[in-house]
Design goal:
Length: 330
């Protein structure tokens, strides 16, 4: 089972957050039908988002979203995670496959691209507006980019290891480790940590060699690492989509368009881009959207402006996509 462990080393000077995400990354790869390279990019991003949730978030209702846009053929990758251990995500072009690098490793950096940014968004539900930070990509390999984000945006020196091992089209090992220098850390301890990281090698090799806890101890050798979690936190690929949300998405279509779906296809299929779940919406459910619904649409282009006091796409006084000034009911 995918799980996460937290620890402290060097008398509290170094924070360690580590996750074995093999099962959830394998689940995500199957859901989205990813190639080996796209699956590795998605798996690294899912794992990175989970690690970041444990250093950036305070409340179990909060979420962190990681988005990488590098201009590569992958088209971008995004993941959303929380302290509850759930994570979801997708790549825009899941079939993207590149030739391996000269060292035989999957070319994740080439797929993501290097001319772009990594954006990290913290959502504080049910209070406050999302807070977003963006820095330029370093390599597109994701681990280095997460570390660069922490250094530039959070001013926290960090080492980040992320890995996904794919064989025969199947994810066999996936995980990540985040090591952070906290205020007051002993410089000698940080030098030893740096040496340990350099000597450690590939994370997936370490995970296959001895498992997550052994990898944590090897990375913090000589630094007296102690676990802070009594029990490992279970991790899972989990989405918040539902039949109700899928149906609500059809509210964006005009009543005429919804009736056309029923006439042509006998209903409508909705696919969640986060998890790949497919739902077929029956005619009765689709027609219930118009039953007593208080909708306000643009008189010129029929874009939905407002629905039942819940769905508000634009604010009063703004301009619709067609250029018309929006006028909402008071």
């Amino acid at each position: 089972m995918s799980h996460l462990l937290r620890g402290m080393a060097a008398d509290g000077g170094i924070r360690v957050v580590a996750a074995d995400t093999t099962d959830l990354v394998a689940d995500a790869a199957v859901r989205h039908g990813t190639s080996a390279t796209a699956g590795a990019a998605l798996g690294r991003t899912l794992t990175g988002a989970l690690l970041l949730s444990h250093v950036l978030l305070k409340d179990h209702r909060d979420r962190v979203t990681v988005r990488l846009e590098g201009g590569g053929p992958l088209g971008g990758v995004i993941a959303d995670a929380g302290l509850d251990g759930s994570v979801r995500g997708y790549v825009k072009n899941p079939e993207t496959e590149l030739a391996p690098r000269t060292d035989g490793k999957l070319d994740v950096g080439g797929a993501v691209g290097r001319a772009g940014t990594i954006e990290v968004i913290r959502s504080h539900a049910p209070y406050g507006d999302p807070f977003s930070s963006t820095v330029e990509l370093v390599s597109g390999e994701i681990a280095e980019d997460v570390a660069a984000f922490l250094a530039r945006s959070e001013q926290i020196a960090s080492a980040v290891l992320l890995g996904v091992y794919v064989r025969g089209g199947r994810v066999e090992t996936a995980g990540g480790v985040l090591l952070q220098a906290l205020p007051g850390a002993d410089p000698a301890a940080l030098d030893l940590l740096e040496a340990n990281v350099r000597a450690f090698g590939q994370l997936t090799d370490g995970l296959r060699r001895g498992g997550l806890l052994t990898a944590m101890h090897e990375l913090t050798w000589g630094l007296d690492m102690r676990l802070m979690t009594e029990e490992a936190l279970p991790l899972r690929f989990g989405c918040r989509c539902s039949d109700e949300k899928a149906l609500e998405a059809l509210a964006y279509f005009t009543p005429e368009e919804r009736e056309a779906m029923i006439a042509e296809d006998g209903g409508a299929e909705a696919v969640c881009h986060w998890c790949g779940e497919r739902r077929f919406l029956e005619p009765q459910a689709i027609r219930s959207l118009g039953a007593g619904a208080d909708e306000v649409r643009c008189p010129a282009c029929e874009t939905l402006w407002y629905r039942d006091g819940r769905t508000v796409m634009v604010r009063d006084g703004e301009r619709c996509a067609c250029g018309r000034v929006v006028t909402l009911p008071s």
